[in-house]
Structures are given as C-alpha cells and as structure tokens.
Input
Amino acid sequence: MKLLRVLLFVLAIALVVVFTPLAAAPQAMAFTARHLVYGSRGDDVYELQSRLRLLGYYWGRVDGLFGWKTYWAVRTFQYNFGMKVDGVVGPKTKRMLVKATPNWHWRRSGGSRSASNHALPSRVQGLSASDIRLMQHVVYGEARGEPFEGQVAVAAVILNRLHSPKFPHSIPAIIYQPGAFDAVSDGQINLPPDETSLQAVLDAIHGWDPTHGALYYFNPAKATSRWIWSRPQIARIGSHIFTL
Amino acid sequence: MLHRTTWIAIPVLAAVVFGAATGWWGYDQYRQRQALALQAENQYEASFHELVAHVNALETEIGKAIITSDPTAWDNRLRDMWRLSYAAQGDVARLPYGLLPMHNVQQFLSDVAQEANDWLDQGVRPTERAVNKSLQTLYARAHTVSARLAALTDVMAPDRLRWLAVQQALADGKSDNQMVDGFRRLDGEAGTFVESRVRANVQPVAADSFAREPEVDPMTAARRLASFAGVAGPAADWQVQALGQGRQGRTWLVVGQTSGQKRIVGYVTRHGGHVIAFTLSGGQGAAKFDFADAEDRAVAWLRSRGFGPVAVMDGMQYGNVGYYVCSPTVHGDPVVDRQLSVKVSLADLRVIGFAQAGDVGKPVLPLPPRTLTDEQIRRRLNPVFRVEMMRDVIVKDAKGRYQPAVAVYGTYDGETYRMYIDARTGRELETDRLTDRTV
Output
C-alpha cells in the first residue's frame, strides 16, 4: 500500500513536470531577440502582424512577410506610443507592443503558420510575382543544365529586352514573342521548375547581369542562322554565346 | 523448297514494309498534330498572360491617376490607360472565348478607353470631384478583374491546365472545367472586373565610365576581384577571359575556385580594374543570423569597399539569403539612379554577391538648390493620397541631369505608391506602385 502511495506521488510529480511547460507554451511564443526590418520574414513577423492587427494598426494578411503594410503599421504604432518613428522593430518597440497586447495569444489571433522562407513578396524591384514565376519557367526550360551564372544570364537577357525599345514592354509579351525562346516553341516552358532557377531569376532582378547587356543568345552547336552568328558576341557562358 | 519460301517471304516482307510505312506515317501525323496543338496552346497562353499583365498595369495606372495632381503626369496616365485598355481588348479577342460571355469585361475595358479619351479631349483635371469619383469606380472594377485573373493564374500554374482542354470542355458543353468556370465568374463580377514597371533610369554601368583610367592586365584584374570579394587568391588555376564589347565596356571575366571549394565569378573593368559584379557560391546551411544583421553587414561592407555612406532602398529575404539594394548618398540624400546590390548569406553573414548599376563616373554635384519645402510639396498632392513618409532624394530628370527631389511614400486604397516630386518645380517625375494586393 505504501509502495502504491509512493508510486502515485511519483506519477503526480511526473505529470506536473511534463504538462507545466505545455500549459505555458503560448506565453513562451513571444518575440525572439531578432530585430525586424522591412523585408524580414518568419514567425517573429507573424507575431508582429497579429499583435498589430489586434490593436487595429494592421489590416493586411498575417503572412510573416514584413512588407509595406506592416511597415506603415509599425510606424503608426511607434508614433502613437511616443517612440522614435523609424519602422524598425527593436527591443523597445517589441516591449511596448507586448505590453499593449496582454491578451494576445499565438493560436487565437493567428491560425495557420507564417509564410515559408521561399514565398515571394507581391513585387520585387517592380516585377510582379507572376512575372517572376514565368521567368523561372523559361530559365528552367532553357538552361537547367547550365552553370548557375548561365541561368542568371538567361534571366538577364529577358530583363535586358524589357529595357530595350526593340522588344515588347512586358515580361509575358517578351517570353511569348513568336520564336523568341526555344523552351516556349517546344513546350519545355511547362516543365515544373526547380529552386535554382528561381534564385537565378532573383539574382538577375537584383542587378547581376553576366551578359553585359546581351539581347540574344544561342547554342553554337545547334544554331544555323547566319544572322545570329553575325551579332557582336559578348561572352560564352556554359553552352550559350550571348550577343548584342 | 526455295520457291515455296520465297512465296511466303514476299507477302510477309510486304506486310512488314506496309506496317512500318503506316506506322511511320501515323507517327509523323501525330507529331505534326502535337506541334500544332503546342503552337495553339502557346498562343492562348501568351494572350492570357498578356491579359493578366495589361489589366494589372491598367489597375496600377488608374491608381496613379487617382493620386496625381500634376497636369502633365495626369495626361500621361490617361494616355497609358487608353493604351492598356486597348491592348487588353486585343488579348481578350485572341483567347478561345467565342462561346463565353465576356461582354462585361469588354464593356469595362471599353468604358476605360472611352473615359480616358473624353477626359483628354475635355482637358479636365484629376482633382475635379466627378472625375475622381469615376476614376475610383473604374479602379474598383479593375481590381475585381485583376484579382480574379490572378486567382485563375494560381489555378492554372500548379494544375498545369491546358487551353485546349478549355476548348474541348466548351465544345462538349461541360462546365466543370476550372478555367471555364473561372472565366464565367470573372465576367459575372466584371458586370458589377501583370505590364511590370521597372525603373528605366537605372542603367548598367556605362561603357565610358572609367575610360580615362589606365588598363589593367588579367592578373591585376584577378587580384582586384579576390581582394574586393575578400577571398584568398588568385590561385594559379583562376581563369581570366576578355569579354566582348557589352554595354559596360570591355571587361575581364574572372572565374576561380576559392578555399572551401567555393566558386567565384566576377567582372572587372579593363580600364581602372573596377569590380562591377561578382558572385560567390555559398549561402548554404541554415540561417543563423537576422535579416537586419545582414543589412548592417551589407552597409558596412559597401563602406569598407569605398562606396562611402549608403542608404538601403529595398531589401528582401529569400531562403537563407538577404538581398539589399542600396544607393550612395550625397549630403545624406540617396542618389536613387545609382544602385549597389548586395547579397548576404544568413548562414554566416558573408557577402556572396554584388552588382552595381548607374552612371557611377558622372558627378552628382553641384545640384540646384531645393526651393520647395516638404510641407509645400505635401499641399500640392492630391488629397486622396495618404502620405505616410517623405524622404529627400536625388534623381535624374528626363534630360539626364541630377535634380533634388522628394520621394513621397503613401497609400491609396491599401496599395503603397512612391512618387518622386521635383523639389524645385513641384512636378511629378515618376510614380511606382510598390505593392500588389491581387497576388
């Protein structure tokens, strides 16, 4: 009997030890020490957005992406609470936000998890997410076997055409211009692309142009057109020659 | 014996030849049909994506027209609205919607073209109440169409739906095809309805930027790159290739392996040996550092490379990499037509990519003085545009001269816009839409 009491006591202690942290879990889900700025993403941003939304400062999607709406909400919050208005969420802003939202609860105000680290913002350097995805398909269809800079180069050619008055003025029109890209003509544009091709597109969008302004490229092993061979050549990257 | 074998062999051989010929012909016919089908598919795909882009751009232009108060910018917006609505009508006509009721969408596009044309003829101003009200109605309709098209794009991409399947569904009178249903819904909502803009002024580093500086040899170029990127080298197996005359002038392309088996690829100008861009393979491993820490690192790295004080103009995180677009500052004001892009690994805070753009050699100073205060500029803006932030900047005007300007960040209907206003004349130089709620 005594042994049974001891066992029950040990069991009770074990239950308390096991379940106490679980009960406290929502409180533990507070901001980490990260500084949050425009462009940040992750669970901290998710928490920031949902707390600001609870206070009525934020009206956008709670998606874990620190975009313009979050930025304006942070600035308004900082202004109203007498803090330095800079849109940067440091320790002081976090403390004030936590103090202002004592009833905030991770699950109640949230729902699904925040965006993955691979979600795209609605616009990147003036290009829409759908334009970027379309470019990703072309890069994968045209250059998936090429070195990384060869993939960036294909994306850069599309962007160079966007800046050139000789070509249409939108990404879809450039990509689907008849005969412009083999991947469109032979249907390889419809292949499901990989992550590397998207990284190549993002590099090109952020200014990396390994082609130095090239508007065309061709594979010397396959190209028979005299015209393309007559173009001034800039560089050979992988199996493609890039020309003006 | 031979006679009998021959008599058996001849029909068998004939059957084999006939079968092979028929098979080859059939396969050839199949290939031709597939090629035609793919061509038709691509045409439909092109028209659809262009329709998405044009309607998205139309929504942007209407939004810009609502918030503008500058007469010149207003006329430009109207012309763009007219052009885009006309282009979108052409896209609709090229889609296989003969059997679909697209009348409301066409009506909307026609309304936009008609209104824009009338306003141009009548010379009305954007701040007139009736005009602004009509614009807001058009904007709401444009957003409905744009959002629905974006939703259709989302349906199409992952499921890889085909346009020919739409035609087949229409021909069979079925209505369970997602695209057919989607377009019917789209048209219904239009009764009650993505051209991207990138800053055209930011050009690559001009070919003649460093023309007066002495030429560097390949070895010097490789050394400059290694030092600039902060890697050991150059090793004996690094390759230096002379590139042809691109827009950035004659350049050395340097490719090499660094310690840790990282690959470096860089571009160094032949005149002066300036690194225009480089990339270092890396960024692998889990992100251990903040995006904000990486931003500080990017700014400090640029300063250490002699670019002076810079301002971060844009940034985004993708995976375990942070991208930062900075502009050098003159007396504290960023020169927005010069861009320094830095890519930082969040795994180890290492700078793994760099690119510069803009006319780096051209002097910014002397600048004409600012004559309008922020408050005077704010008063000139359209009152429907909610100003969130103003920042002094330096921009290039249409004639390529640097001018003092104010970047006005603000919102209209939940969308964020950035307007560059000339700080001397108050004229609107350029407006960008920075968000897109349809995505």
Notes: The two ends of chain B are 80 Å apart (CA to CA).
